[in-house]
Amino acid sequence: MPNAFGALDALGDLPTGPQGHLPILPVKTSKRGQKNTSRGRVDIVRQTAHRGGKAVTVAKNFKGIGLPEKQELAKKIQRACGVGGTVKDGCIEIQGDKREEMKRILTEAGFNPVFAGG
Question: For the whole model, what pTM was predicted?
Fold first, then answer.
């Protein structure tokens, strides 16, 4: 079988190449295309005041999120909990005590949900 590098022997004094390990290529640090996992703290509160004694779970203090995304999150939470809800005054209101389900969905969306209040 012929030597594929046989023609290089005729060139004479070639450098030997790098010694030791090959250089380490830089690791890709761009987060573009990945889910944002640090979108800030969101407070989750259960309220009954002025609602006829019925509990409502409210997520508030969203930072840097627009109304369309809040409405999309509200729809996702409503479907997961099987209840109604709305976006009012920049807060997501879901009928019933659904704090755990709301926390799970907000965590998946990259927020840091915290139970606030009593």
Answer: 0.66
